[in-house]
Write a structure and sequence with these properties.
By secondary structure, the chain is of the alpha/beta class. 35% of the residues lie in helices and 21% in strands. It is built from 14 helices and 17 strands. The strands form 3 sheets. It has an 8-stranded mixed sheet with strand order 8-11-12-7-13-14-15-16, with helices on both faces. Strands 3-2-1-4-5-6 form a 6-stranded parallel sheet. A hairpin with a 2-residue loop joins strand 9 and strand 10. Helix 5 packs parallel to helix 6 and helix 10 packs parallel to helix 13. The two termini are 44 Å apart. The relative contact order is 0.14. Bound molecules: nicotinamide-adenine-dinucleotide. The site of nicotinamide-adenine-dinucleotide (NAD) has 20 residues, from helix 1.
Length: 490
Amino acid sequence: NDNQTALIMIFGATGDLAKRKLFPSLYKLFEKDKLSKNFAVIGVARRPLTNDEFQQSIKESVKTAIEKEDRIDEFASHFYYHSHDVTDSASYAALKNMASDLDNHYQLNGNRIFYLAMAPEFFGSIALHLKSDGLTDVRGFKRLVIEKPFGHDLESAKELNDQIRTAFSEDEIYRIDHYLGKEMVQNIEVIRFANAIFEPLWNSRFISNIQVTSSEILGVEERGRYYENSGALRDMVQNHLLQMVALLAMEPPIRLNTEEIRSEKVKVLRALRPIEGEEVNKYFVRGQYDEGTINGKTVPSYRQEPMVAENSNTETFVAGKLLIDNFRWAGVPFYIRTGKRMAAKSTKIVIQFKDVPMNLYYQTEQPLNPNLLVIHIQPEEGVTIHLNAKKAGTGMEATPIKLNYANKGIDGINTPEAYEKLLYDCMRGDATNFTHWDEVALSWSFTDKISDVWENHVDESFPNYKSGTMGPKCSDELLEKDGYFWWPVT
Ligand code: NAD
């Protein structure tokens, strides 16, 4: 398959992402023969390294991530290194020569993938240089893979997009949202559209509310400088959470191809009711973590973390109520929440169905449980359906039961697989699981209205949740107002 022949240029090849995710994922593709023998990788980063040293670091990164690595020497021999300051024009000429040599040597047909795995402030200027210094003048395909964050708000995202569009057309741009590479996120679509029992119920008549949670135990770690300028809304809601909502809410596409799926997702984002001005604090709440105990250890508050202001107004938690104003979803709240230093690491979707019209089983002390469909995205992967069934015994009492499907055990190897799939898709030219500019723009215009309010009003309650809990009280109150509560994620 010709498309899998390519030169992959990784900018930021000594960075954390490259080591932890990209190299191990490429190795897995190589091992499964999903990568053509005709491939070469140029690692680009600032630090001076010889090819040997670079290949050594590739081997180490693969060995750290994967136990089996029989073909590691052969794999690593395809890697080359170029020490390069991305702001220095002269250096692009050398990079260009190296690329054409490898193109000839490995018969790569002029196919090139440029992967930007480095700080976003460089994205625009790298793209401009790739064009002006001739690296994108190729016989084959050229593709740009770009990491998050894609801009800081709509305006900066537009500016970045204009820069990269001078060198790449929209269909050559692969904007990574690694959630879209996760097995169970991709499964949302299959569960909905390959089963007769869900789609007929998938609307406001039968669904009472949908809850999307993505919680982390980790705090901000070493990323204080970045996070202070970002916060949970930009870091998680604008991309990952809105993408999951779009997949849950979209209409069945007429075909499972990139264009059709994207256009359905875009329609959901267009139907998202804008929340602005005074409405913001009614529909969205924010939190910032205080000290607390996690796994028996005391952890510091956000404001005590390195590179964080001692009076920081940055949110490390967001919960919100989204409304999708279309025929299918009118009136159904989509509750989303995400945060750091929470009680569990968990990404989960709960679809809560409406109650049966009349409860015939009130002799039990409790009211009937509603039916739930739970999609477990990480760390465990699977699907659970909550039903009511007869309680064993002489009476006619109902009791909740669960039908459980576990995709596999607790992960650890889950995340590299997202990158493995996304890299493979990119090699084949399948952009379905990457975000289109229209989605990026609509998502920013939604979250910008919230940031506008939050950035101009200091939240006096910060820090407002203890580390190791499920967030601030206002998050629970957001659902209580509507008569709901967050279904536990653990
Ligand atoms: P990092 O700081 O670990 O690595 C940065 C890389 O860029 C290094 O290889 C460094 O040498 C190179 N670099 C920096 N300045 C340079 C210059 N002037 N010229 C040439 N090279 C230069 O960063 P990271 O954690 O690997 O993240 C990279 C990108 O991926 C970022 O956009 C980040 O937001 C995104 N991302 C990272 C992760 C992750 O797990 N680390 C997850 C999702 C997204």
